[in-house]
Design goal:
The chain is of the alpha/beta class and about 675 residues long. The protein folds into four domains: about 5-130, no CATH class; about 155-290 and about 405-580, P-loop containing nucleotide triphosphate hydrolases (Rossmann fold); about 295-395, no CATH class; about 585-640, no CATH class. The chain is about 35% helix and about 15% strand. It contains 25 helices and 20 strands. The strands form four sheets. It has a ten-stranded mixed sheet. Strands 1-2-5-4-3-6 form a six-stranded antiparallel beta barrel. A two-stranded antiparallel ribbon has the order 7-8. Strand 7 and strand 8 form a beta hairpin. Helix 12 (about 345-365) packs antiparallel against helix 13 (about 375-385), helix 22 (about 585-600) crosses helix 23 and helix 24 (about 615-630) runs antiparallel to helix 25 (about 635-640).
């Protein structure tokens, strides 16, 4: 843009509100200037202003404010009012309101000189775009984050996608008081903006508490379904205001819920009811199981085992199992000629351990050998004992008998899709395992460019829990640190939320290209990380209303205050009122629901008849198979895989998981093997 074009954009209709002033006590610099205004000016902390000094325009943001009169001390005013504060003064003292503004940009950029004395104007749309350097990227890579408001003016504020999603920089972090900072709403709106403006981006969200993210596919108000709209009205659901719609119009973002959302949750301990609050039959159509087997989690043994109890020798043997044993197709031969069974499941691994330990005991009795492939028998027993209870500890997430498990659609992610993993009801260690494995798989597929999308946003709430500034270096912390430092190169982007930014590892927050702050606690604001802000900015942060953010971005030389609209997404609390959580169902009822989900002609009696005559475990396996394959004739699959009632077999000592029953197909029966 030429100087003539810039001057043409610099409107003559700008409202003058003040004049730059430089005193001996408070001189202006190249990066900060002072100005005074009249009493009725709309200037406040966060206001964007522009100084027009002829050949030079300086854009700034107000960061401090003060006022004074000609009174030299309080005593003079006290005496002048005859010691009565309710008296009317004989003469009205003049009051001067002064402000300090930090420089955002100057035209021309060089030479860098102190801000000249000149008139001060309120910024219009053109000046807002210039001051935040949005003119350099708005058309190609702009992502709306909110509006800058001054009176009735709503100026869009855009982030640069190359500094939000990579490759120049990446990641975003949002800090604020729980319940008052609207952190979840801000992230939801940012995702709406990304999907509306950027191609080939998907998102994975971890729902770690309550029901905040369980109704992303339902609008906050005005659903198209008339019956649902009536339920909305009856329950008083709907929070959007005319101001919200006005902001949506100004930002050019569709005011709608997410269109493509998929939910995943582990099973409860019964292994057929899903552990999620989104259990109402009206909303289970896009809820899938999350269930993993041995091969899925063994490489993450560091997460699930007590690292203080696993030494280098035990770790080496676990790696041997992971890299050699579970990849062996024929089984490993022993010195006596016997062959250890192939290992695919936890049940297989139990048989493998028993046979190996029996062989070592026999060899010890005969020749005194106490090693297997350089691994001491005591180490082998130790690993066996540690792995033997994993299915029980993570019952519902880990499956004992099955090789094929329910997982995210790796390699088939769709642009504009959100995959929500509901782990709110899991314990802390279970959550660690899920987050670690999912993030690791995302990194693996993105590095190979086989995920299905070029970029994937990972939303993690309570980041100070998973990547704290202190504490041990866990596998999960190392994974998150790696993403924050290298994720932008492969398209893996971290969006995090937390109450206390100061408690998050400095390498994570240091690598976030965009930082957002909602309403803050004064104790948090007193920590060293916020001392770069002025006192007035910190005090404003402590009193922000819902829907307001302070934003820092690489293109913004100073923090900017913006407003964002409430996302047109059903709040979790309203969603639970509309779709109350269903109680636990019997195995028969779950089987009916699953079969009718894929074939509405299936009768309840037909399904119940099969379940009543069949082994519980084989029915559960059959239902998992149906959920995985979505067959057109689910009843036929159920009949084929469900076996007659078994005889109870005694569980071996130290066995994996809960006591098992012998299936009709024998110990080697694989319910997922196609006939």
């Amino acid at each position: 843009m030429t100087m003539e074009e810039e001057k043409a954009g610099f409107s003559a209709d700008l409202r003058q509100v003040g004049r730059v002033v430089a005193t001996e006590a408070k001189p202006n610099t190249a990066y900060e200037f002072h100005f005074w205004t009249g009493e009725g000016s709309p200037v406040g902390i966060g206001t964007l202003v522009v100084v027009d000094a002829g050949a030079t325009q300086v854009y700034g943001v107000v960061i401090e404010a003060w006022s004074f009169t000609d009174v030299s001390s309080a005593m003079h005013d006290y005496i002048g009012m005859e010691e009565r504060p309710d008296n009317e003064p004989m003469t009205r003292r003049p009051e001067v309101r002064c402000y300090t503004a930090a420089v955002l940009r100057r035209d021309p950029e060089e030479p860098v000189q102190p801000v000249p004395v000149g008139p001060v104007y309120l910024s219009d749309d053109f000046c807002v775009k210039r001051s935040l350097r949005m003119d350099t990227y708005a058309e190609k890579t702009g992502v709306p984050i909110g509006v800058y408001q001054n009176g009735e003016m709503l100026s869009p504020v855009l982030l640069d996608a190359e500094f939000l999603l990579g490759p120049e920089a990446a990641h975003a972090t949002l800090t604020g008081v729980s319940g008052l900072a609207t952190k979840t709403s801000a992230i939801e709106f940012l995702l709406q903006s990304i999907f509306a403006t950027q191609d080939n981006v998907a998102c994975v969200c971890f729902n770690v508490k309550g029901h905040d993210m369980l109704f992303l596919d339902y609008p906050d108000q005005s659903p198209e379904d008339p019956d649902l709209a009536e339920r909305y009205e009856k329950l008083g659901v709907g929070q959007l205001t005319p101001d919200d719609f006005a902001m949506y119009d100004a930002l050019g973002v569709p005011c709608e819920a997410f269109r493509d959302v998929h939910y995943y949750a582990p099973y409860k301990e019964d292994q057929f009811n899903l552990s999620t609050l989104r259990s109402n039959p009206d909303v289970t159509h896009n809820v899938s199981a999350l269930a993993w087997g041995l091969t899925d989690i063994l490489e993450f043994a560091e997460v699930v085992l007590n690292r203080d109890d696993i030494d280098a020798k035990a770790d080496a043997f676990i790696q041997y199992i992971n890299q050699t044993v579970i990849r062996d197709e024929n089984g490993i031969k022993l010195s006596n000629g016997d062959c250890l069974p192939p290992v695919r499941t936890f049940q297989d691994l139990e048989r493998w351990f028993r046979q190996l330990l029996k062989h070592l005991e026999d060899e010890k009795g005969g020749r005194g050998e106490e090693q297997f492939r350089t691994h001491n028998v005591m180490t082998i027993r130790k690993v066996y004992n540690r792995l033997s209870n994993l299915v029980t500890r993570y019952r519902g997430l880990l499956v004992e008998r099955d090789e094929r498990c329910a997982d995210l659609p790796w390699g088939e992610f769709k642009p504009g899709s959100i995959y929500v993993i509901d782990i709110a009801k899991m314990d802390a260690q279970g959550q660690d395992l899920v987050v670690t494995r999912v993030v690791s798989k995302l990194r693996e597929y993105l590095e190979k460019k086989k995920l299905g999308v070029e970029k994937c946003v990972v939303v993690v709430d309570e980041l100070n829990k998973y990547a704290p500034s202190d504490g041990p270096e866990t596998y999960l912390k190392k994974t998150l640190l790696d993403i924050s430092e290298r994720g932008r190169y492969i398209g893996l982007v971290l969006f995090s939320a937390q109450q206390f930014r100061s408690q998050v590892h400095k390498r994570v927050v240091g690598n976030c290209g965009t930082s957002m702050y909602g309403r803050m606690d004064m104790d948090e604001l007193s920590t060293p990380g916020y001392q770069v802000l002025s006192r007035a900015e910190r005090e404003k942060l402590a009193t922000l209303s819902k829907g307001q953010l302070m934003v820092r971005h690489p293109h913004f030389s100073q923090a900017i205050f913006v407003k964002f609209p409430r996302p047109n997404i059903l709040r979790g609390s309203d969603g639970i009122k509309l779709f109350p959580e269903a109680g636990e169902l019997s195995l028969e009822d779950v089987a009916v629901r699953v079969c009718r989900e894929y074939d509405r002609t299936v009768t309840t009696d037909a399904v119940r008849a099969v379940v009543e005559e069949s082994d519980r475990e084989s029915v559960i396996n059959a239902l998992n198979r149906i959920r995985l394959e979505c067959p057109p004739d689910p009843l036929a699959v159920l009949k084929k895989l469900a076996k007659s009632q078994p005889q109870v077999a005694p569980a071996g000592p130290g066995g994996f998981g809960a006591p098992r029953v012998a299936s009709a197909g024998g110990d080697d029966y694989d319910p997922f093997e196609k006939g």
